[in-house]
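Case study: Peptidase S8/S53 domain-containing protein.
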Amino acid sequence: QDPIVSNEIGDPSNQHNHGTQVLSVLAGFKPKTMIGSAYGAEFLLGKTEDISGEYHSEEDNYIEGLEWGESLGADIVSSSIGYIAWYTQDDLDGQTAAITKAVNIAIELGMVVVTAVGNSGTGGIVAPADAFDVISCGAVDENEIISSFSSRGPTADGRIKPEVCAQGNGTFSATAISTTSYGTGIGTSLAAPLVSGTCALLLEAHPHWTPAQIRNAILNTADQSNTPDNTYGWGIVDAFAAFIYDQTGTPSDSVFLVSNGYPNPCDKMVSFTLINPPDLKVKLSIIDVKGSSTFEKNYTLLQNEDIIQLNLKDYPTGVYMVNFDFKQNTPITRKICHIRGLENPCTE
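Here is what the predicted structure looks like once written out:
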């Protein structure tokens, strides 16, 4: 972990160009100049690329970055990156590329993953855009016309890609030339932070939504959701429509689910939303990173009760696993990052 996010000794002179542009689209805030798509969120910056070439180690770095972010309680991954140099399009089947398999696991663990679909036009997509429940992003211009460079699907196993599109041609951003320089850029790399920012806003409004529900809302409210194709996917994202989307009847609402804990990280109270719990009786346990159970309780839900709160105020700072065990169902585990004395802690 390193607090320095600008170029360091040994870096190519343009190492920080791409990251500066992408982060500004997501997190920038300068009134009357530019407002990022989720400027009020908290961010972890992972530097995984060596732009002097294409190396297998970069893929390993990305996977390590995923693990690092997940261990700290990150809710969303915004990924403006992709690999194809040591793969072929036949490998992009959702279960072959190492980076794709890592993204599948991250999503299963409760992270929303948004990634650029690639800049190869009809030449095909890049990994990890082929992951099964990722939200891959194509690029349109200011007139909502697909950019020629925006990669088209399908995946090797025939799934539609990209999932959605956002402006990635002529996208306004900060640049690394100076602390006051701005410009426009092109690439699906600039579409992805617009979509991941939308996901952050949805989680702020609906903290109990699961990654599947976030993806459902994004796809099912995009502007060609009724006729998806391998150019635009489900279409251009409509953030407000996704915000008011009714999850009733979607697949993720018809099964038993436990949301990620929120807020996460947190100082005191952490909440979990239960969707269609199979029983009113559940055994709760909190497990530390050494595997020791620090709390166990048999809890009986009230009729229509769908939120469980746990008080961690007396726990040391650290990462904990919260286990929900309903009889005759596979236990569900959620990770919590607890930080004592966190600024603006949630109230009891």
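For the exam, be able to explain this: Confidence is low (pLDDT under 50) at residues 344-348.
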